[in-house]
Amino acid sequence: MEAPTGQRTVGAGHSYYTGAGRRIGCFWAVLLLLALAVLLLAGVMHVDVRLLMPQLGDQVDGPPVTNVMFLKTHKTASSTVLNILFRFAETHNLSAALPAGGRFHLGYPWLFLARYVEGAEQGGPERRFNIMCNHLRFNPPEVQKVMPNDTFYFSILRNPVFQLESSFVYYKSHVPAFRNVTSLDAFLASPWAYYNQSLGLSNAYARNSMWFDLGFDNDAPPKEDYVRARLLDVERRFQLLLIAEHFDESMVLLRRLLRWRLDDVVAFRLNARSRHSVTSLSPAGQERAKHWCALDWRLYQHFNRTFWARLRAELSPRRLRSEVARLRERRRELAALCLQDSEPKNKSQITDFRLRPYQSGRADIMGYNLKPGLDNQTLQTCQRMVMPELQYMAHLYTLQFPDKPPKNIAFLEA
Ligand SMILES: Nc1ncnc2c1ncn2[C@@H]1O[C@H](COP(=O)(O)OS(=O)(=O)O)[C@@H](OP(=O)(O)O)[C@H]1O
């Protein structure tokens, strides 16, 4: 006898669903086993799982830090950091403390004053900004006038031997102490023949320039008590000192402390010299540079130590390795997406003047050409990543102060 249609349907349906239920159960069991196997394999092969599931690694606890002051020291990879901060300001609609009027820095080499910031004196004495990162000579009470109380302060240091070599080539014709000497080795062999202490500020790039940028006396004798007291000052004022030689590890640490996303801290190397404008110092010259810049040498040694101690406190070695690997991988992806030939170009090869960095002295400062044919959104992302310091500052200035005359960067066209 044939069962009524409805019963048969229900019966058939029931057995169908029972079979399907079994299949679904199997599916989840297999998936669970697979996941366990991957985790086991990752453990055995010392692979960080976040490398396999990148979206997991981009999770951060709590809101991002948005009040940030970066002391932009000279010739220390600071333009690359500035690019990161300007991008963050622009994409998060944050205000930046930019140089007033037609200026390109915040009063450097004079000690910073709040009135060097555009708009600091408008809207009453309480006007505060989110991001501050243009060159200035650090002067905490004045910086505090334009930055909120909960600002995160950080800076970056570089081995003074290489920092001095970079300065020498870049500021060769600008700094009196460097003007009349053929090489840095010759300068370091008898610095007092070229360095006139009474010229003060104009020679700041020639000796202990990071110490000077921090607001201290770059000609002070490196006496133990004095050095220790100033290092303590820096520790009190800054939450973090990064190290240019370990730039990627620095970005991992910075991102963690600021609770930013990975893409916020991925950057291309900016303001780098082409290989033919880098000179090498003899081993004796290197030792003399450490002696000549003894204050910077102490500064660098001290904060190189604290940097690694901080990294160890924040991340296990394996986690650090995997985060650095992820950062590099993402940089490679973005280079392939944005850059012509995925690499930097020297000044004569850069076709768009808006992307050509400011050139100084004998240095050939490299930049980038973008790939042709990028869609609008990708183009915007890529342009931001390769935009040199002066152009980016002028761009933000126009966005922030549309009624003011724009910064005149026509000289970059030459
Ligand atoms: N990501 C990264 N890692 C390591 N080093 C880097 C990085 N980005 C820039 N650089 C090097 O930093 C030098 C430029 O420093 P600044 O941008 O601070 O110079 S400036 O004071 O703003 O003119 C310049 O050094 P030299 O090439 O020796 O002159 C750059 O090569």
UniProtKB/TrEMBL annotation:
Q: Corresponding gene? A: GAL3ST2
- Its name, as the record gives it, is Galactose-3-O-sulfotransferase 2
Topology relative to the membrane: Single-pass type II membrane protein
Q: Is the Aminoacyl-tRNA synthetase keyword given for this protein?
A: no
Q: Which residues form a coiled coil?
A: none
Give UniProt keywords alphabetically: Glycoprotein, Golgi apparatus, Membrane, Signal-anchor, Transferase, Transmembrane, Transmembrane helix
Please report the organism this UniProt entry assigns to the protein: Odocoileus virginianus
Give the domain of life: Eukaryota
Q: Does the keyword Transmembrane helix apply?
A: yes
Membrane-spanning ranges = 24-45
UniProt similarity note: Belongs to the galactose-3-O-sulfotransferase family.
Its lineage reads: Eukaryota, Metazoa, Chordata, Craniata, Vertebrata
Subcellular location per UniProt equals: Golgi apparatus membrane
| Pfam annotation, one family | Gal-3-0_sulfotr
Q: Which InterPro entries match?
A: Gal-3-0_sulfotransfrase, P-loop_NTPase
